[in-house]
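User: Design a sequence. Structure:
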């Protein structure tokens, strides 16, 4: 991870918009997990260096670009959620003069669960190796066809080398090829063929 970036899922205690449940920061940008899915604020390469220059020089030439994508889990229910693997770190946010926007003791997590986003299908978010990863936990006899993803604000979408590529104004955002498996009776992983 880049120096100064501390990948984690930060809970929302009123310091951000009410639809946001967690915020994550990685080298590639900000991720806001909320009521209908993920909002990705992709950062231009060198964003933090340019932002630092802006703060030092107060020059518009030092500003960097961003692009926002919305990944919506169509029909998903995001009301039952909780963070796990508390990182034993808290932050305080004092945004502006409005005490309603101040939040104290804000916890950070390694992982967050959304229970029954679809019938008998849970959704788990993890921060791993400076990336936000999500996976669906599908119970026996649940219908994985209920899982539907809608992408908003991409300039184009393509499949390349098994990856789902979202072209943006400042580069690309991608989803790795899906890895689908079930556990056999001994707890071993049995791979299931799947692609986009």
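Assistant: Done.
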């Amino acid at each position: 991870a880049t120096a100064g970036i501390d990948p984690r899922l930060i809970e929302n205690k009123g310091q951000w918009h009410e639809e946001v449940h967690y915020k994550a920061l990685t080298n590639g940008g900000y991720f806001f997990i909320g009521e209908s899915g993920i909002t990705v604020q992709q950062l231009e390469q060198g964003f933090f260096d340019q932002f630092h220059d802006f703060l030092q020089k107060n020059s518009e030439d030092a500003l960097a670009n961003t692009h926002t994508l919305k990944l919506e889990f169509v029909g998903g229910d995001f009301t039952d959620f909780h963070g796990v693997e508390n990182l034993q770190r808290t932050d305080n946010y004092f945004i502006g003069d409005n005490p309603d926007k101040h939040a104290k003791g804000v916890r950070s997590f390694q992982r967050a669960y959304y229970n029954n986003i679809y019938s008998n299908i849970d959704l788990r978010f993890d921060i791993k190796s400076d990336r936000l990863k999500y996976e669906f936990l599908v119970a026996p006899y649940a219908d994985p066809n209920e899982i539907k993803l809608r992408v908003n604000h991409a300039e184009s979408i393509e499949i390349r080398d098994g990856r789902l590529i979202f072209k943006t104004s400042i580069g690309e955002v991608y989803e790795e090829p899906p890895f689908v498996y079930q556990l056999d009776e001994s707890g071993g992983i049995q791979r299931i063929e799947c692609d986009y």
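The chain has a mean pLDDT of 87. The longest strand covers residues 102-118.
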